[in-house]
Amino acid sequence: MPGLVNPALPAGALRALTQPRLVVDDDLTLRPWRADDADAIRTAFATPDIQRWHMRSIDGDDEVHQWIEDWTTSWHAETDAGWAIARTSDDQAIGQASLRSLALFAAQAQVSYWVVPAARGARVAARATRALTHWAFEVLRLHRVFLLHSTANPASCRVALNCGFPAEGTLRGYMLHTDGWHDMHIHARLHTDL
Ligand SMILES: CC(C)(COP(=O)(O)OP(=O)(O)OC[C@H]1O[C@@H](n2cnc3c(N)ncnc32)[C@H](O)[C@@H]1OP(=O)(O)O)[C@@H](O)C(=O)NCCC(=O)NCCS
């Protein structure tokens, strides 16, 4: 049965690009993950609220290195695109910002972020997400970027609002966490909102 709607973006639109370094502002840069980020990744995934809201832990060096390599694989598969949020002064990774569940045919992706506890309190996630979303709209040409967070995670709700993602509603019993089903807020930004 022929489809009547053409893909919003063609297959190959992400893989044709080299993953860029993105300047967030004077203090922060988004850059591809590297093997020497292993300690920062171990620290992040040992943090209780990062484990809780990202629903995974990392056990051992092999899993850390696999996690880093998976970003290259998923860029070429055009499923996910992830950056380390790095302090510009020393290029040290202090967080992550990514486009998840990338759907080129619908020109959409879900944004995800975490920040290590030592770097919190300076709106790092919102600043990084703004820069990532700008790239996603202006270079990759996505149409919609959305964000989901548990209604029990008010910090993430603040991040979403701070980076210009208005709330669209509550998805009831939408995501299974370790302590059961969570209601999720959905926030989104359209290219045309810019
Ligand atoms: C969410 C997260 C990325 C924010 O880190 P950050 O960018 O350093 O954010 P900040 O510490 O500057 O806080 C941002 C806002 O959230 C508020 N906030 C922080 N912790 C909060 C909490 N426990 N409850 C309510 N609000 C909180 C801050 O007051 C701030 O509000 P403001 O914008 O009005 O000033 C970080 O807390 C984190 O990594 N959490 C665990 C992982 C996670 O939740 N990821 C998102 C999954 S959807």
From TrEMBL:
Gene3D superfamilies per record: 3.40.630.30
PROSITE patterns the record matches: GNAT
InterPro entries from the UniProt entry: Acyl_CoA_acyltransferase (IPR016181), GNAT_dom (IPR000182), Ribosomal_N-acetyltransferase (IPR051908)
Pfam families reported in the protein's UniProt record: Acetyltransf_3
Residue ranges annotated for the N-acetyltransferase domain, each copy included: 28-193
Designated name of the protein: GNAT family N-acetyltransferase
Species of the source: Dactylosporangium darangshiense
